[in-house]
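Summary for the steering committee. One of the milestones for this cycle was to obtain a three-dimensional model of the protein with protoporphyrin IX containing FE bound, which we needed before selecting residues for the alanine scan. The sequence and ligand used are listed below.
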Amino acid sequence: MSAAKTPQSASTDARPRCPVDIDLVNPDTFLAGMPLGAFARMREEAPVFWHPQPGASGDGFWAVNRPADIREVSRQPDIFSSRELGSLLQTGEQAGGDSLETMRLLLLNMDPPEHTRLRETVQRAFTPRTIRGLEPRLREFAEGIVDRAVAKGEGDFVKDVAAELPLLAICELMGIPAQDRGRIFDLSNRLIGFEDPEFQTSPEDAQVASTEMYLYANELAEQRQREPRQDIITDLLHAQVDGHALSVSEFDVFFLLLAVAGNETTRNAITHGMKAFFDHPEQWELFKRERPGAAADEIIRWATPVMQFQRTAMSDYVLAGQQIRAGERVGLFYSAANRDSDLLPEPDRFDIRRTRNLHVAFGGGGPHFCLGANLARAEVQIMFEVIADRMPHIAPTGALRPLRSMFINGIKTFPVRYVPAPPA
Ligand code: HEM
């Protein structure tokens, strides 16, 4: 760990810049796939560099590209705050004002000790033990999904297969009735897809979608107040944080976070995983034969569905030799770090038998480490086991279409043929 030290006359011109001409906050940059060549040069030549972002807080941020540095930042929430300017990189543009206050109600945008207390209220729903208990139900869901796809013969893998399981899983955990699941799915798409013109939504529509989500959350809360159940909603309603129950807005934003965080991320992990198996048929053969339990983590590393989150330095700090000033933002580029050879040997090889896979797709550790990591791993593993059982010869029939986003490494559509397993 480096000690904070403030040089007397630091000129902003002395800040290292990206060795490649690339704009990491422009969604178009990622339309042709992850810029792996650029990431490699960034890690090699300027692991921590200054990235301009005109109009955003500080007119830029420090891009951090190596796993060790990401861990160093993630594990020191007292120095690198999630609350100060929020944890979403693009929101730097709206720094300050009401939106920041609202954002701070979200677990992702809190710092300890407030964060610790709120997180404890839902932690129970996500322990490895709880998730193991949920597995038979996840398998049942996955089998239903795959059987419906097989019956269709062909279709869009994202819609038919990848999107369904995360949605069913989170709805099950939260106790959302079956008839409302379509509504949650649509709202979460509108919330996250506004950078992509095809979703025909806008930041304003995302705002409307979040309001609709809150209204729905309130309806459900009223219902659970009357009839408590064994689900996260009931837990949240009975949670005591600092001796008082969650306020309506605290409850609403928590609901929204759970609904969104679990859907988009795991859906994209599954779709990228399928693509990786198509691109590496020998790995698919291996999976079908051996079903290594390590596959899920390799798929998630390969996909890295969340490209980055940000923190804000609360004091001066030296990271990888770079002087970071109090108040400056730091972007943690998980997508670049997950291809670092310090992380694992031959990081550009997709290998589902890797054992020590300490990737940073769920974050670099510390208090915000993905709450749903165990659930996501179980969903990915089970989904591919069921695909291997029931449609082992699934094949692509066209090109996939990427989501236009600088935050989510997303795939919108992926045409495939669902080939059923030959009769035993
Ligand atoms: C492959 C799928 C997933 C990926 C790649 C992923 C990734 C992440 C990342 C990178 C973070 C931030 C970590 C940090 O700041 O240090 C995060 C936080 C979070 N994730 Fe996930 N996630 C996934 C699935 C899920 C699922 C299924 C849920 C279930 C509800 C979930 C719920 C959350 C929540 C609530 C947080 C905020 C935790 C906090 O601030 O304390 N995630 N996730």
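Key point for the committee: Confidence is low (pLDDT under 50) at residues 1-10, 92-96.
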